[in-house]
Write a structure and sequence with these properties.
Chain lengths: 183, 205
């Protein structure tokens, strides 16, 4: 998986260079480009009610320390690393025990058929409950691999491990989720 | 249903579910799925997870971008303030440095001149105890006795190694280098950077 490329749009590196040159619009483009994926990741890590706050904090911190950003690495990977650290810090601060996340009315698996909707809600609820049983690293790896389609190499950069270890984390996470759903 | 052990096939399931698989890899996985119920079940799990986790929470990107702009603006202002403070520091340090160098040169020149002058006029006898200074004492009251006349001696260099009575330009090369070394040391000490003036710039990651 490579840096997101969009037809006719400047690369992340070009936008960073423009922002360093004082172009505030470049920051806006980068936020619009990466905020949705970062917010999905933050939500999957358990921050359901304070997603926007965490995402905003992620970007503020990222741009605040952009001087230390290595051009060789991916901005997306770097953003997700910051977001992950923020989620971990908040989890520690809140000392939250694993809980089943409440599902709001806007979940994707809703259906016009009441029976299907109920089944879908149950499926979603159980899946999220299963993910709550994973370790923080397993949850991050599972989310990045399944929901975002990242390579093990990119995932390893975010969770600060090796590519092989990221692969092991992924398969362990899948096994644990399946075991929970089969109970 | 037994668990499939072909991890290289399982690795590809998220890519298949996203429609990001093509070519020989896609064909190989489809052949495997035709005979592996475990991987078919896992593919369903992956697809469900993609739907659940693929929901994008509603976030106000404009508000986030504005927060980034505010933060970067504050940071740039702070950076400019630090740069300005450093320029001021450069001037306030540089000016006393020049004064200091001039004063040090004068003191060194005067000191060397005094030492050279005393050594020349009052040569210390071999074996005599070292004295800090030789001060001419007034004569005690009473009958005065004629002071033995000292044979006139021509001005000589004596034992003084430094012979000068003028300024720094009269110093020998080696002494001049020593003096410059001392001044360089002083200069180095003055180049030490001051503590960061605005702590907000530190550790804000």
């Amino acid at each position: 998986m490579t840096e997101p490329t969009r037809d006719g749009e400047p690369s992340d590196a070009a936008l960073i260079a423009r922002w360093r040159g004082g172009d505030e619009r470049a920051a806006t483009i980068l936020v619009e480009r990466h905020a949705p994926a970062v917010s999905r990741f933050v939500a999957s890590m358990g921050e359901r009610g304070e997603v926007e706050e965490v995402v905003q904090d992620t970007f503020v911190r990222a741009f605040g320390s952009l001087d230390r950003f290595r051009e060789a690495s991916s901005l997306r990977t770097w953003l997700f690393s910051i977001a992950r650290n923020l989620c971990r810090d908040r989890a520690r601060a809140n000392r939250r025990a694993p809980t089943v996340v409440a599902i709001d009315d806007t979940h994707l698996l809703s259906s016009s058929d009441p029976l299907s909707a109920a089944v879908a809600t149950e499926t979603e609820s159980r899946l999220r409950a299963a993910m709550e049983r994973l370790t923080e690293t397993q949850r991050a790896v599972f989310t990045l691999r399944v929901a975002e389609g990242w390579s093990y190499r990119e995932i390893a950069d975010v969770v600060e491990t090796t590519e092989g270890a990221a692969r092991v984390h992924y398969h362990n996470a899948v096994r644990l989720v399946k075991e929970y759903l089969d109970e | 249903m037994s668990e499939c052990t072909k991890l290289e096939m399982k690795d590809l399931l998220p890519d298949l579910a996203r429609g990001a698989l093509a070519g020989p890899a896609l064909a190989a996985l489809e052949d495997h799925l035709a005979t592996c119920a475990s991987c078919r079940a896992e593919l369903e799990l992956v697809r469900t997870a993609q739907m659940v986790l693929g929901v994008t929470p509603s976030v106000d990107t404009a508000r986030i971008a504005a927060a980034v702009g505010r933060s970067s603006g504050i940071r740039r202002d702070a950076t400019a303030a630090v740069a300005q403070a450093r320029r001021r520091r450069t001037w306030t340090v540089a000016a006393p440095r020049r004064v200091w160098l001039a004063a040090a040169s004068i003191v060194a020149a005067v000191g060397v001149s005094v030492i050279a002058s005393n050594t020349t006029r009052n040569p210390v006898e071999p074996g005599a105890a070292p004295t800090v200074a030789q001060v001419e004492q007034p004569s005690p009251p009473g009958p005065t006795t004629p002071e033995p006349t000292r044979p006139a001696t021509p001005p000589s260099v004596g034992r003084a190694e430094l012979v000068m009575a003028g300024g720094v330009s009269d110093l020998a090369d080696s002494d001049l280098e020593s003096l410059l070394q001392v001044l360089d040391d002083v200069d180095t000490e003055l180049d030490v950077e001051p503590a960061v003036l605005l702590p907000v710039l530190e550790g804000d990651v």
